[in-house]
Amino acid sequence: MMKLNSSSKDTEFHDILKKNVSVFSHLVSASQNYLTAFSKYSNDFMIPYLIATSYFNDVEKQKLWSTSPLENVQSYMELLAFNLDLVSRSVSSSMKAITHSGKMEMENAIAAVFNTLFCSEGEDVEGFLARQAKMMDVMANQYPQAIQDIEPEFGFHFEREDNKKIAETDRFILYQILPTDKKVKVNNSGKPIIILPPYVLGANILAFLPNEKRSYAHCFANQGIPTYIRIFKDISTNEAVQVMTGEDDALDTQLFCEKVKERHGKPVTLNGYCQGGFSAVCNLLSGELDDLVDALITCVSPMDGTRSQGLADFLKNLPQRFNDLLYGTKTLPNGNQVADGKIMGWVYKLKSIEDESPIAVFYRDLMMFGRQDGTNVKISKTAAAINYWLNNERNDLPMAITQMSFDSYNTPITKDGTLPIKLFGKKLNLKRLKEKGIQWLICYGESDDLVEKETALAPIDYIDAEVTAFPKGHVAIATSWSHPNSACALHTRFGNKNYRGPVRYQLDLDADFNRSTAKK
Predict the structure, then answer these.
(1) Distances in whole angstroms, Cα of residue 182 to Cα of each of 4, 185, 211, 361, 377
(2) Total-model pTM
(3) Considering the domain 165-340+396-519 in this protein, what is its CATH number?
(4) Would you state the pLDDT for residue 19?
(5) According to CATH, where is 3.40.50.1820 located in the chain?
């Protein structure tokens, strides 16, 4: 009997020791992966900061000697106050994120301690820490790997030659986007559309996940619409891109419109997404696309940046001395200067520091996985693709093109509808679109905090345009609503106001064109 008791105690001791070792192992693993994951989120924010600091120092070395000491002191004091406000907002939002995340697990942690102390059923401390270790492994290893693994499925991948190269200039390549639905044939007698992607955000967001039927460009192609997209050449290896101007943009677009109109025998619809929409409008107002384009679609495009409650206010609060493109300018080995795309993206993070600080982003992602069963965490392709895009699709920009956007965020459209920029020495007035009979559909995101409703809809103060409101934010039209079975599918009418999606709009334009031609 004594031997049995001794053996039982030995077994119990070994079980306790084993459990303690397991607890310690999970704790160490969770801690290491927490530091690894958080350091990555911090680096994503701090690397652009360090680059910006380098640019700042280079510019200030020149400015310090050209301004008075009093002005220097005043500007730096204003900058200090501006930075302190950013820090305060960042700390406040970070604490909220930590508190919110803590609330999700606090009850579980207390229950785990209780179950361990009183040998109750349910998750004990070992189980709780095992789950936390699993979560941190997802954040530090599995999630980053999933983001890299999504690359073959994300974007156009023109190197595969699934789409046709139609034309080329020193700055752009025009591709025809072919249907991914093999049952669909291109209607070559249909009205063609040319899509102008955003410069900074890149074109691939418009082919989010084609094989999942979530691609803005393929929404048009899969309806048989002759669909084309203008692709920006690599700025790092093409000098013509580095020095391009708004006039170059317009002339290259003119060439592409001529070729597309010749191919299909119908005038082109120009469709700009984000900054591409602003470029499209400027090109049309310049007169270079007359008789080539008869319709315009803009999606979440900043038409008057001064109406932005986010970025414009951010620039207004920035001391005037530092509201200068020089602080985001990169000098290339050949001496040409371009706007650094990483800095442009970082500025948007600063503008929304409450949501984009490293701690806030880290805990937001952590809570995304924490809501799942900790033993079987699933990483959605959507989350992976969005993060791949955010991590890899920030392009440098020609200075002249950046200056156009910069001017639009600092100078409002005049009372008579004139934009704050010129092309070919001409003033650009929105009323010219009405004079030329160009139909216009403006799409915006109801929760877009990058290009707010007021910024996108500024033109309707001067001319008539059809408006379509989409739920969600800046890229939802290209991601959530590009699926044909979504609530706001682009080829349908939707909402209480019977809005037309951009694909529906294009199909209806073609039908109207055919009817008017038949009558003649």
Answers:
(1) 74, 8, 12, 40, 34
(2) 0.90
(3) 3.40.50.1820
(4) 62
(5) 165-340+396-519
